[in-house]
Predict the 3D structure of the following.
Amino acid sequence: MRQPDPVTDEELRRLRWQCRRGMLELDHLLSGFLDRGYRDLDASGRTEFLALLDNQDQELSDWFMSRSIPDDPVVRDLVRHIVAVVTPRRT
Amino acid sequence: MSIPSRHFDALIIGAGGAGLNAALQLASADVRVAVVSKVFPTRSHTVAAQGGVNAALANVLPDNWHWHMFDTVKGSDYLGDQDAIEFMCREAIPTVYELEHAGVPFSRLDNGKIYQRAFGGQSQDFGGDQAARTCAAADRTGHAILHTLYQQNIRARTHFFDEFFALDLVRDKDGVISGALVLEIETGEPLLIEAKATLLATGGCGQVFRTTSNAHINTGDGCAMALRAGIPLMDMEFYQFHPTGIAGKGMLITEGVRGEGGFLVNKDGERFMERYAPRAKDLASRDVVSRSIVTEVKEGRGAGENGDYILLKLDHLGAEVIDKRLPGIRESSRIFAGADPIREPIPVFPTAHYAMGGIPTDRFGRVVVPVGSGSEQVVAGLYAAGECACASVHGANRLGGNSLLDILVFGRLAGKDIIDFVRENPYQRSVDPASLDEAMSRLTRWDQKGGGVPAHQLRADFRKCMEDHAGVFRTEEVMAEGYQRLCELRDQFKDARLTDHSKVFNTARIEALELQNLIDVGLSIAVSALHRKESRGAHSRPDYPNRDDVHWMKHSLYYREADRMDYKPVRTKPLTVESFPPKERVY
């Protein structure tokens, strides 16, 4: 399997600011994923993450908290993936 | 160094409900207005407000603004200014109608009128039956208001500077505020925005505490800018904590969980609230539950590897009840605590939620400072509105539904007053180069290289110290020790350094700039709390357990210079009605 391209510092910094949101829950999920899951995405996954950040806070919150489900199956999978990466594992 | 500049009639710093409502008044009156926001405007923290806006519309139950005023004065534990409270409760009604006309989709009754729900602390007929006063757009009122205001501002051609960080206020040679130096986050370049009037609307400062429900953006930027401009902060010791936030993360776990039968246990599985509040137990008031949790942790009965949280147990309610009545809580706990409450308890700790204090203003949003003995004067051209401001409508404790109301009423009125101000003061004042240099030094100090304390480490240490020493457990000993430690951390800030000196989207530099704001605002909370020797509203001291109206029915004013405290009287005379004299606050 091909290794994902390395992420540049500038790309990460730019994304980090886009992960600053109006709700604490989104701050944790999005910046947590940026730290722990973003590097492992392939090029199309990274494009999808960038597109996800363009959604409104309320919509993102509804998706992450399972109050609604994204119509687009790609977005649906990404939302599930982010939650799986960020959710702490209890020992 | 030459810094590019832009000129506007009015500059608004912050794009939440207060800033956008002010901007809309200005832009609609053809005043040239700029809004500076460090994040895209619809990502402001107003979006997180779910509850609603109080206004005595009497659509569901009988109501009037005077009853709303009584509830707010009582809720404030008699520290709110009664003229400002009367004004807010009267203005609530036209403010809600104006929002409705602007397009906010308030929930409706079958007869087409705005639906109103009942919240705690609301009464009919001055303390009688429950009232229903809160107007809501389903469970996303903040989102609906923020989007409506943003779209209306776009229509009215408000000029937005998105992702610009405000560094400091600037003055002319006479000391009059004449705009602000800001930083474009994308390029890392400074920009001077000169304006005849400046409104601070930067929201809350919950990030001064380690555990908070506030978003990461809530770093008290406007309050800190005011402090550095020599303006005091008022009533900063009054900070509302919610007893059950997810431990280490801060997200709110609603009181509804305990209302449904959930209860708190320590590491030994003991229902410790039975010791602290034998009758009310887990449903005791917020400050009692918060302090009980912290006491358990301090005395070594906390759960978890580090013994630093308490457990909220609800598995006994059964999966069906939890899924039906508390679905959001189950999801929140699973995602952020990794605990499914159907099987295991939720780790919780008190979480910092809302600042009642802030930049002192009159009811027109004009910043006011004391002069001489007893009187105060308006700071020409400087305004504040929203959570960063203190028009003194919440006093020592805010009622649910009054925070959105505060930002909307005083944002709107500040906007209207600025319209008059810029018409009466049509000429732009020249910024004093010395003032600009001072603001610029706040930025350039981060260019220094070499050893020193990493800024992110200092930030974590400061927030932890605030939580331990200026949070819910406030005895003389705990706070005095904390003050010493906070001063040491403030001293270390002088040696704080960054390792990343790049310009483009240097978020580490923005966080370092925020750190200075957190330190300035944090000290204002800690020092104000240390000095107030009574318990009132959200400020609860086990060593001074009673309210002391004789000595302490007065507002605190904290000055950054030498951590000086001053005080001013509470305005007990309303505008048109009789005063509500202080009484014991019983619900």
Notes: The mean pLDDT of chain A is 93. The helical segments of chain A are 9-18, 24-36, 43-53, 57-64, 73-86. Chain A touches chain B at residues 9-10, 13-14, 16-17, 20-29, 31, 56-58, 64-67, 83, 86-90 (CB under 8 Å). Residues 11 and 17 of chain A are 10 Å apart (CA to CA).
